[in-house]
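As a warm-up, study this chain.
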Amino acid sequence: MARTKVFTITVALLRLRSIAIWLGPLAGAFLALAQVPPTVRPTPPTRDPHTPGYVAATELPDGSNPPANADGNFIIGPTHQPAAEMSVHEGVPQGSVYEFTMNSADSTVYPGIARDAQTFGTPDPANPAKLVVTTSHPAPYSRQVAVYVPKQYVPGSAAPFIVGADGPDRLLFIALDNLIAEHRVPVMVAISIGNGGGDAQGSERGLEYDTMSGRYAQFVETEVLPLVEAKCHVKLTKDPEGRATMGGSSGGSCALIMAWYHPELYHRVLTYSGTYVNQQWPYNPAAPHGAWEFHERLIPASPREPLRIWMEVGDRDLLNPNVMRDGMHDWVVANENMAKALGARGYHYQFVFARNAGHTDRTVKQQTLPEALAYIWQGYPARKVTK
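Now compare it with the structure written out below.
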């Protein structure tokens, strides 16, 4: 009997050892997976614009846009047809587009970083609002810059302009051809700047767009705009009333960051699906919640800045697209909170909640971009300028 028990225990121990040996590599794999972002983002739920806690908004007839001279909150959709200004029209003067490349080796502001492919980061166990990224390192990059110069530009005159993220943005150039011809916006230059690569925490794009500081505006002012003037033979205005920023997703939060930290440079902001969430990296104790700080603390607690802001979010915009679960990764709530904070402080702003729309939805942009541009340029004279 004793031998039988010993045999049975020995067999059991061998089985346990085999299982442990088999599970060992899997345990390591599970730990490794914690550094790998999901290959497909989870499908966000469809949010109701009348959800309690959201801003009160005017529901517009399907297919229409808010008027370009109206502040406040609006609901559009569910269908989104391109505006007439989003097509090339015969007889409308077409601007010229100049393109050039910028390399990290020539930048003192952004020498370049990258996060290793198929890695992300892990939340700090002591602070779920802080992401630990161990796979980011110095790396070179190049970026494309596309500059639209309208046909009506008078050489030597100081032109108003708009700076756009994640360029080149061909839709913007088409819209400007038509809006300038209609005298709905000024005769303006558009500077569409490509990002430095990657996305989110630990990447060059994330560093440029999600950092809560004046660094990106400094980069544009000292390294991009002088090249634009030299290479495209234009003169750019120094008047902040004649300067605008725009972008989508992190490019959208970047547009506001540029104007917020440098209101002496920019007064007009246009954003699609703005990333007003906690996505800043490296961690910054001065703004520990990244762009979530805008509606959580900065706008409510600060004197009103001389900014005019247009914002959009989709009903199926992002919700917890990565491993962070800090309660600050809902794009719809973030943009709703932005509208609430801006309204409470008396800003000139227009907020559009788009039904049947995803993150930086192209069909929504094609429907709304002309009116959005006309809105942010309210109050600036759209004088007819000819050569």
